[in-house]
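Anyone up for a design puzzle?
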């Protein structure tokens, strides 16, 4: 029912109300920034932890008892609670994996909460390569991860006081002026990624080689340079020693932490190191009687055959006219296990004639498993959106519906099967009886909307409005709506999201109270 590229965490965070989800073991599976701020915690501190371990004083409270009841009866329940002097109404709903709790402040609306970036920071700091964010205009460092601090020997605060030139070796051509020119070149070639090898210097004065992959990007309408820095000193040293001494080459070859091999132009192994034995499960003697195609998984075979054909073509060209070829492949070990590899390969020459291909491969199986887990989390988020009590819809940049959840089906009486993929303002028909722009369109096309919202407020890119619609299920309804843009994982705008809440009954109750007084 949903398209796979939708950033559901952004969608859920945009709902605006504090939201908490726990599984049947009371472990927090999702919490948004609004809830975390309400309890004076961060998202990173809460997700993955058991609720009662974080808040032992919760035991015996109305919330705790309500959670127990919802988990047992699978029936929704509402309670009132007080947090830091504010009164709230907590609505608890059953969900397939446990329960979902939404908290609404009584009487007074809380101000809009800005994402704290705790989740971003946790992921940012766990990346094994050094990551930098540069200001293109000033060439100053705005942010860096933990690995960057370790690599260069500075604290984050110290790095933020430095310019990019302070990390250069200052040995021509690796100087401050050249690196500033390179940054400008990267910015002018946006969105292409630029890769360069550079001689860097750490706090102690140690000079070392790095590979820098950089790309210009825009964050909140400002241009930044995102740089991934990898220490390639060991690779450079390996290349130098291979030229200097065959004995040293053999020592490094054997003791490398990566898989290193040499095979002829037809793929028959000529030399393998210890890590090849360890990774494949085959003894050296077995590998030297095998062809590389005997290891390659069926799914990677076509790509690998193209790699071998490319190597044979390059062998017919003059030495030095090509660069190492990098690609990913999956192999099957002697025991049937699958291993994902990132391979860098180049031609080996003898008397100016290409005779073989040498490769260095790195096991990236863990990274691939993380990608699978991420896709599973994405699927969970899709299911989570389906069980949200607020009606939620989303459209792409062409105005076609890509999200229409269960609550929206119930609110409008229109099924998702009939609405998904529809454009030309068809999503307005259940509300107005005709095709016309609504609040979600104001996010993408500000000048193309009928201004009939009784109340409309804009904070940054978030729009909130109250409107009376005439055609919803044949009668007038008072609706509260909230619309925001949403982006893919690369930060590209791909559409807009709107959450809608029916306030009709609430308006009736309020009117009745006023009449009774």
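Challenge accepted. My sequence:
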């Amino acid at each position: 029912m949903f398209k796979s590229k939708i950033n559901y965490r952004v969608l859920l965070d945009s709902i605006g109300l504090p939201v908490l989800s726990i599984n049947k073991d009371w472990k927090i599976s999702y919490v948004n920034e609004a809830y975390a701020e309400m309890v004076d915690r961060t998202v990173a501190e809460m997700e993955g932890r058991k609720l009662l371990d974080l808040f032992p004083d919760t035991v015996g409270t109305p919330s705790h008892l309500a959670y127990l009841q919802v988990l047992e009866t699978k029936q929704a329940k509402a309670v009132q609670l007080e947090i830091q002097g504010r009164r709230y109404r907590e609505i608890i709903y059953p969900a397939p994996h446990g329960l979902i709790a939404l908290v609404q402040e009584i009487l007074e609306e809380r101000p809009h909460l800005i994402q704290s970036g705790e989740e971003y920071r946790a992921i940012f700091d766990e990346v094994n390569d050094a990551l930098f964010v540069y200001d293109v205009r000033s060439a100053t460092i705005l942010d860096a991860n933990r690995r960057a601090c370790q690599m260069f020997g500075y604290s984050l605060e110290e790095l933020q006081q430095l310019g990019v030139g302070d990390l250069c070796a200052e040995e021509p051509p690796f100087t401050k002026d050249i690196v500033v020119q390179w940054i400008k070149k990267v910015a002018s070639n946006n969105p292409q990624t630029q890769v360069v090898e550079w001689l860097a210097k750490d706090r102690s004065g140690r000079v070392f080689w790095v590979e820098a992959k950089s790309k210009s990007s825009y964050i909140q309408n400002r241009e930044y340079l995102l740089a991934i820095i990898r220490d390639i000193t060991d690779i450079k040293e390996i290349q130098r020693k291979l030229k200097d001494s065959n004995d040293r080459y053999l020592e490094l070859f054997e003791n490398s932490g990566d898989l290193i091999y040499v095979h002829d132009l037809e793929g028959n192994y000529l030399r393998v190191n210890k890590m090849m034995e360890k990774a494949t499960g085959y003894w050296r003697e077995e590998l030297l009687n095998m062809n590389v195609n005997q290891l390659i998984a069926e799914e990677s075979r076509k790509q690998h055959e193209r790699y071998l054909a490319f190597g044979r073509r390059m062998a017919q060209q003059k030495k030095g006219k090509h660069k190492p070829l990098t690609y990913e492949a999956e192999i099957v070990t002697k025991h049937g296990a699958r291993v994902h590899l990132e391979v860098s390969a180049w031609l080996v020459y003898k008397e100016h004639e290409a005779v073989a291909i040498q490769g260095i491969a790195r096991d990236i199986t863990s990274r691939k498993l993380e990608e699978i887990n991420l896709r599973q989390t994405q699927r969970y988020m899709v299911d989570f959106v389906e069980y949200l009590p607020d009606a939620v819809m989303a459209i792409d940049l062409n105005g076609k519906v890509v999200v229409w959840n269960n609550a929206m089906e119930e609110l409008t009486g229109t099924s998702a099967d009939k609405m998904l993929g529809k454009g030309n303002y068809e999503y307005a028909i259940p509300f107005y009886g005709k095709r016309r722009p609504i609040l979600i369109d104001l996010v993408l096309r500000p000048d193309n909307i009928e201004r009939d919202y009784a109340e409309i407020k804009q904070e940054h890119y978030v729009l909130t409005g109250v409107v009376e619609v005439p055609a919803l299920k044949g009668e007038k309804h008072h609706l509260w709506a909230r619309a925001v843009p949403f982006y893919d994982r690369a930060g590209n705008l791909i559409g807009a999201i709107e959450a809608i809440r029916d306030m009709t009954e609430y308006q009736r109750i309020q009117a009745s109270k006023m009449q009774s007084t």
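A detail worth pointing out: The first strand starts at residue 19 and ends at 23.
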